Amino acid sequence: xxxxLRKARTIIRKTLEKGRELELKPLSVVVLDAGGHVxxxxxxxxxxxxxxxxxxxxxxxxxxxxxxxxxxMARAEQQAYFMGAVNGLFxxxxxxxxxxxxxxxxxxxxIGAVGVTGDTSDNDAAAxxxxxxxxxxxxxx
Length: 141
Description:
five-stranded antiparallel beta sheet; alpha+beta; 5 helices; about 20% strand
């Protein structure tokens, strides 16, 4: 299974709604499929233009390693050399912090990832989970 455009758009819409509800700074949200390809992206008014690369890096690391952003950050703290080497393999595209959320279907299979940036990493992750759950999927932060 892969993430449909309809579900990706729902995730983005509901993530942004949660961000506004929590009065977060302007967010940027990307949804990647299981192969790391962009399915959808939106950047709120007022979000800096570099936010696409950060959101993408959070999601890309999650889907390519099969490891959510929180786990990536813990691994980077414990084994910086490993995460540095892996990030080098992926052309420096990974951002190993919360806000990179694995997407799982009802059977627990990884079908993609969501990357959110704009506020603190923990707030980014919380907004992502709200969007993911609204789309009927499970997120792993």
